[in-house]
Amino acid sequence: MQIDLKRMNFGAPAAERDIALGLTDYFVESDAFKRLADRSRTIVLGNRGTGKSAIFKILADRARKSGAHVLELNPDHYSYEMLSSVLRAESEGSWAKHGAFTSSWKYLILILVMQELTRSGPRLKTGSAAKVYSFLRDHVEGEQENPIAVLISYLKRIEGFKIGPAEASLKTSELAKLYRLQELEPLIPCIKELLDKRSLVVLVDELDKGWDNSEDAKAFVSGLFQAAIWLNELSTRLTVYISLRQELYDSIPALYDDTQKYRDLIETIRWDEPSLLAVAGMRIKHSFPELKASGNDEAWGSIFAETLRYRKAKSFNYLVDRTLYRPRELIQFCSDAVADARSQNLVPIDYGVVSRVELDYSAARQKDISSEYRFQYPGLESIFEVFRGKVYLFERSDLEMLCLQICTGELRTDKFATWVLEQDPDFLIDVLWQVGFLRARAIGGLKALRRSGSSYVGPHQVSTLNLRTVSHFQVHPMFRAALGMREPKRDASQSHDDDGNDDESDA
Ligand SMILES: Nc1ncnc2c1ncn2[C@@H]1O[C@H](COP(=O)(O)OP(=O)(O)O)[C@@H](O)[C@H]1O
Ligand SMILES: [Mg+2]
């Protein structure tokens, strides 16, 4: 078949735009997705670009098609800056923000649910619908208003009694009412009845947008988690889904201290190579419907050369090795290659094109990863820079020495990277592994987890690894081009390449 690359469209790298391009057609359904769809899990954790929004977009699409109400909440609706500017600090009078946020979230979501359930206006309302409708008319003004205003005004009521001048016994009784959502109590049976007629799905995505790491932001998110659990228990016809970036979850003590409570509700997104091949393959088939009957590897092979010239590596392995197993990365890399090859229709795409686009891709990824961890590890990019121009392979002792020079300040890093000073090198190695910058040579029992030929693994491939016992490391291939890193001199007895053509004899 003659492939015209003008027809090849790998889609948009963010689900919000991808949904208009064909995501419903080329969505890869994982077991994780199924557990969410059947409501056995309701919290989605994953790194940037792993597909949190994609799952939500598909859940929304399917819920709508099945006739359910759908409410999508995202950052146009909340702003962390606003929270900090209107709320008093916890230190001004301990008012247990977490609990206040929990009640306020319950209140807000129930108001939104009631609005949605009675959306058709005042006509012909009887029974439950009429009761809900008149409550909203009397208590909530301006439906158009930013929903966060409803949350904030409830918070302000709690705050007023917590740190306001009221007399103690009055404080207690008023607070109890607010925490219990007393105003809404008589309406709960009405809400349930309306839900029985038509179920409702609430999706809260992108909580990390505009994240400022403040006390309020953390209480906002942990309160939402609590509220969602409560709401999901209210009626099986109401489902609240939340997504959160993994490392934000890890940075909110109220959440990870309570991990037991959330564990069986959490779905963590993980990808492997066959499912990433499906992401690419299904997009290729979407662009070329005549390939519909082909397997994903066959579809891949119609766009990319099977084996890359000069590298002797399989093209899919080469590209996927330059990702942290996030669909957004693979889509970006593939789109960049297609954009480069398009004008001359250089198909199948070979190493010339791939290597041409790799530098920009790699540089963009390096920037993105640094920015992704800017709260936990500020100035990360300046630590990556220390590796510039070096051979990408490290024996433990050499890596420790380099890290020690960073930790002591002998090798200068960004002024924001103070967290690294006075740490021991093992700590830094651990961080660099966790963020995906380093891969560790797997030994023994881990063999089964890796593709034959590649003996170095990252946290996207194995969730736990005792780094202390690892003797060899390498900089992840995704970062190498941007840092101009060099290949080790080949030595017949010892080869540690990662491109799928390695002779480490586990094939
Ligand atoms: N299961 C999937 N099937 C197909 N494409 C996916 C899937 N998950 C994610 N993608 C694609 O990967 C890219 C990143 O996903 P997105 O949901 O925007 O990431 P996140 O919200 O986690 O940052 C988007 O182009 C999205 O359509
Ligand atoms: Mg998203």
Provide structural commentary.
With 507 residues, the protein is of the alpha/beta class. The chain has 3 domains: 30-88 and 95-268, Rossmann fold (3-Layer(aba) Sandwich); 272-372, no CATH class; 380-480, no CATH class. The protein has helices spanning 15-21, 23-26, 31-37, 52-65, 80-86, 97-117, 127-139, 147-163, 168-180, 188-197, 215-234, 246-250, 253-256, 259-263, 273-287, 296-303, 315-321, 327-342, 351-372, 380-385, 396-407, 425-434, 477-480; strands at 43-46, 69-73, 200-204, 238-245, 266-268, 307-308, 313-314, 393-395, 438-441, 456-457, 472-475. The strands form 3 sheets. Strands 2-3-4-1-5 form a 5-stranded parallel beta sheet, with helices on both faces. It has a 4-stranded antiparallel beta sheet with strand order 8-11-9-10. The protein has a two-stranded antiparallel sheet with strand order 6-7. It starts with 14 loop residues before the first helix and ends in a 27-residue tail after the last helix. Residues 492-507 have low confidence and may be disordered. Bound molecules: adenosine-5'-diphosphate and magnesium ion. Magnesium ion (MG) binds next to helix 4.
Hetero groups in this structure are: adenosine-5'-diphosphate, magnesium ion
The number of distinct structural domains comes to 3
> What is the helical fraction, as a range of percent?
40-55%
Instruction: Please state how the strands of the largest beta sheet are arranged side by side.
Output: 2-3-4-1-5
Number of strand elements: 11
What percent of residues are in strands? 5-15%
Task: Give the termini separation.
Answer: 33 Å
For the biggest sheet, the summary is:
5 strands, parallel
How many DSSP H or I helices?
Answer: 23
Mean pLDDT: 90
Q: In CATH, what is the class of the largest domain?
A: Alpha Beta
CATH topology name of the largest domain: Rossmann fold
Q: Could you say which overall geometry the principal axes of the C-alpha atoms support? A: globular
The class by helix and strand makeup works out as alpha/beta
CATH arch. level architecture of the largest domain:
3-Layer(aba) Sandwich
Unreliable stretches covering 5 or more consecutive residues:
492-507
